[in-house]
Design goal:
Blueprint: E1 2-5, H1 6-16, E2 21-24, H2 31-43, E3 47-50, H3 54-68, E4 72-76, H4 80-83, H5 86-94, E5 99-105, H6 121-124, E6 131-134, H7 141-153, E7 159-165, H8 166-170, E8 172-175, H9 196-208, E9 212-216, H10 218-222, H11 226-236, E10 240-242, E11 257-260, H12 267-275, E12 278-282, E13 302-307, E14 321-324, H13 327-341, H14 348-363, H15 377-387, E15 392-395, H16 399-407, E16 415-416, H17 427-437, E17 443-448, H18 449-452, H19 459-465, E18 470-475, H20 480-489, H21 506-512, E19 517-521, H22 527-536, E20 541-546, E21 556-557, E22 566-567
Parallel strand pairs: 2-3, 2-4, 4-5, 5-7, 6-7, 9-10, 9-12, 10-11, 12-13, 13-14, 15-16, 15-17, 17-18, 18-20, 19-20
Antiparallel strand pairs: 1-8, 21-22
Helix pairs in contact: 1-2, 1-7, 3-5, 3-17, 9-13, 11-13, 15-16, 15-22
GO molecular function: acetolactate synthase activity
Domain Thiamine pyrophosphate enzyme N-terminal TPP-binding: 5-122
Catalytic activity: 2 pyruvate + H(+) = (2S)-2-acetolactate + CO2
Length: 578
């Protein structure tokens, strides 16, 4: 026990919980904490990354957390600094990302007086965080930090807010540290192991099924369940489709992998959902981008639903066998039962089903458009995967995100994309967070010209810290996904979506900053060389690729339609559905 300030206790508690990088932006209310950061950074072991906007801090912490599985940390000051975190907190909440955000606040005596830069960030963020704290006394800090990390990372992960009044940072107290794993929260004990009877019932359904399908979401990634998913799929010969958040759970070149399902999923995955007799949902939530028409989604199938969040059971689809628990732990239980009962199915049981899947894959393949005079966005993504298959990939939101999900084949935790909230501007700062976690690995942000401009001020952060992120902009001069909807559903009335006239020359913009390389590609024959040049450059790069302005993203399930009712299919048989 020693006498310390609240600011010391906060920084020391973060270090004790394994924090190595903090993404933030200082201001008056949080200055005592930054003054302590000055001392700690000089000693080493903890680095603060100065972003150019607080939203960038939240997304960088988010990307760091998704790639590592650890809790990401961001700082902001009070008032506008705190409110600028809101979109990043909501993004993390929707996608179940473990994060701790610390916001400065006015001194305790000024709370409720409308003091300068006072805002009730505690109240504002209640719906978009897993838990919130307002620190009232410096002596609470060790407990609050320990609880925040436990809550953020256990059960269904999510963001936690700690609001930190300025005078708490300077208040002295007798400090007793609390290390990770010590705190036990009364009333907060997430169910990890599944109910044994339900697990056995699930196994009975799997054994009886002739057309099973695994539908895997982000909960399986969070649970590190990739090995168990593969083992289950291979043992019972079950095809696997993933959500946008579940991408990477299984190598998409695997014979059982069907890629992503849903609005812009593969045709064969969407048809398989309609034809399966058993749907095994692992860490997924039957959201509207996957199941636009709930009543017809896997209509003839029984459903097993495994999720650590009991609130997801029956929220969108009532399962026949609900199992509350960690996806990995439940699969371990199920596979143990398989071994104990020595269950081996005859290959003939699912042979017809796998044959049907093969027919669908052959009839409705994902294909890159035939090369014309103009580069297609799909060509760019395929070229990236050939030259850099093992990279960490982040995306922004829009057409480029869906094409990336269709054509990239990533490893677990190598895919970072805003799913639930659909946050434009996510990709670049998220890539910064990933690169800080893995400085020796390639990190590529695939963005659109609209999304990139949402947070392109973070190019300054890349420059200051020489963060070697490679940004690939699929530049079509539109808010592409919105333009596509205007084309398909609004009679080609292109209101407020054309960006061409105000478009910067991104390569020149990059080179305004020290140490950043800019490259522009306008012709097909330039593409592979430009990607190689980008990857070879020791430092950040912005690669601006001019692509077909009117390319639409297909297949597509229109809102409110069944997954088997897709637009833009071009069967190999020659019959075009529209």
């Amino acid at each position: 026990m020693k006498r310390v300030t609240g600011a010391f206790a906060l920084i020391d508690s973060l270090k004790r919980h394994g924090v190595k990088h903090i993404f933030g932006y200082p201001g008056g209310a949080i200055l005592p904490v930054y003054d302590e950061m000055y001392r700690v950074e000089a000693e080493g072991g903890l680095q603060h990354i100065l972003v150019r906007h607080e939203q960038g801090a939240a997304h960088a912490a988010d990307g760091y957390a998704r790639a590592t599985g650890q809790v990401g940390v961001c700082f902001a000051t009070s008032g506008p600094g705190a409110t600028n975190l809101v979109t990043g907190l909501a993004t993390a909440m929707m996608d179940s990302v473990p994060m701790v955000a610390v916001t400065g606040q006015v001194p305790r005596a000024l709370l409720g007086t409308d003091g300068f830069q006072e805002i009730d960030i505690f109240g504002i963020t209640i719906p978009i965080v897993k838990h919130s704290y307002m620190v009232q006394h410096a002596a609470e800090i060790p407990r609050i930090v320990a609880e925040a990390f436990h809550i953020a990372s256990s059960g269904r992960p999510g963001p936690v807010l700690i609001d930190f009044p300025k005078d708490v940072g300077t208040e002295e107290f007798d400090y007793t540290p609390i290390d990770p794993g010590v705190v036990q929260l009364t009333g907060y004990r997430p169910t990890v192991r599944g109910n044994v009877r339900q697990v056995r019932r699930a196994l009975e359904l799997i054994c009886a099924s002739k057309r099973p399908l695994l539908y895997v979401g982000g909960g399986a990634i969070a649970a590190e369940a990739h090995a168990q998913v593969k083992q289950l799929a291979e043992h019972f010969h079950i095809p696997v489709t993933t959500t946008l958040m579940g991408k990477g759970i299984m190598d998409e070149s695997h014979p059982l992998a069907l890629g992503m399902l849903g609005m812009h999923g593969t045709a064969y995955a969407n048809f398989a959902v309609g034809e399966c007799d058993l749907l095994i949902a692992l860490g997924s939530r039957f959201d509207d981008r996957v199941a636009s028409q709930q009543e017809n989604f896997a209509r003839d199938a029984q459903v097993i639903h495994v999720d650590i969040d009991p609130a997801e059971m029956g929220k969108n689809r009532t399962p026949d066998v609900p199992i509350v628990g960690d996806v990995r732990e439940v699969l371990v239980q199920l596979l143990d039962e398989v071994a104990k009962q020595q269950i081996e199915l005859e290959d003939s049981q699912t042979q017809a089903w796998l044959g049907r899947i093969a027919e669908l894959e052959a009839e409705y393949p994902l294909e890159v458009p035939h090369p014309t005079g103009i580069l297609s966005p799909q060509e760019v993504i395929v070229a990236l995967t050939r030259q850099c298959p093992d990279a960490y990939y982040t995306t922004d939101v829009g057409q480029h995100q869906m094409w990336s999900a269709q054509f990239l084949n990533t490893k677990p935790r190598h895919w970072m994309s805003s799913g639930g909230l659909g946050t434009m501007g996510y990709g670049l700062p998220a890539a910064m967070g990933v690169k800080m976690a893995f400085p020796n690995d390639p990190v590529i942000c695939i963005s659109g010209d609209g999304s990139f401009q949402m947070n392109m001020q973070e190019v300054g952060t890349l420059s200051q810290y020489n963060i070697g992120v490679k940004v690939v902009i699929l530049n079509n001069g539109w808010l592409g996904m919105v333009r596509q909807w205007q084309h398909m559903f609004y009679g080609d009335r292109y209101e407020a979506t054309n960006l061409e006239m105000g478009m910067p020359q991104f390569a020149k913009l990059a080179e305004v900053y020290q140490g950043i390389k800019g490259i522009t590609v306008t012709e097909r024959e330039e593409l592979n060389g430009a990607i190689a040049e980008m990857l070879a450059h020791d430092g950040p790069v912005i690669l601006d690729v001019r692509v077909n302005r009117t390319e639409d993203c297909y297949p597509m399930v229109a809102p409110g339609h069944s997954n088997s009712d897709m637009i833009g299919l071009h069967p190999r048989s020659g019959q075009v559905q529209s």
